[in-house]
Amino acid sequence: KIGEGKEKKVTIHRPSPVLIIHCHGGGFVAQSSRSHEVYLREWASHLKVPILSVDYSLAPQAPFPRALEEVLYAYCWAINNCHILGSTAEKILLV
Q1: pTM for the full model?
Q2: What positions does the domain Alpha/beta hydrolase fold-3 occupy (predicted)?
Q3: Rg of the chain over all Cα atoms, to the nearest angstrom
Q4: What does the alpha-carbon distance between residue 47 and residue 13 come to, in Å, rounded to a whole number?
Q5: Contact 18, 88 (CB under 8 A)
Q6: How big is the CA angle at 78 (ends 72 and 79), to the nearest 5 degrees?
C-alpha cells in the first residue's frame, strides 16, 4: 500500500487566550488584507496568536460608514466564533 508505515505527526495546540483583529490601512479607500499578509503571517507565527484580517469594502463604491460596519460585524462574528479561529478571545487586540 502507498504510504504504509508512514505516520503523520499531528500537533494539537491549545486555544490562544488572545485574538488579533487586523484592519488593513488605506483610509478605507485602498489596499486589502492581502497587501498586509506577509507581516501578518510573521506576527501569527512569532506570537503564536490567531489573526483575523478584515477585508472590508472600499469607498467610493461602498460609502462611509460601510467599512466600519463591516469591521464591527467581523468583531461580533469573531467573538461568537473564536473557537473556530483557535482562540478563547479572553483578550482581543484591534490593530
Answers
A1: 0.82
A2: 20-94
A3: 17
A4: 13
A5: no
A6: 95
Task: Determine contact, residues 37/66, Cβ cutoff 8 Å.
Answer: no
Which residue carries 477585508 as its cell? 55
Of 17, 20, 24, 39, nearest to 70 by C-alpha is 24
Mean pLDDT rounded to a whole number for the chain = 90
| Three-state DSSP class for residue 89 | strand
Nearest CA to 25 among 65, 52, 58?
58
**Cα-based torsion angle of the residue sequence 67, 38, 41, 46 in order, rounded to the nearest 10 degrees:** -120
Q: Which residues contact 56 (CB under 8 A, 6 or more apart)?
A: 23, 28, 62, 66, 67, 70, 71, 74
Phi, psi of 55, rounded to the nearest 5 degrees = -100, 80
Q: How far apart are the first and last CA of the chain?
A: 49
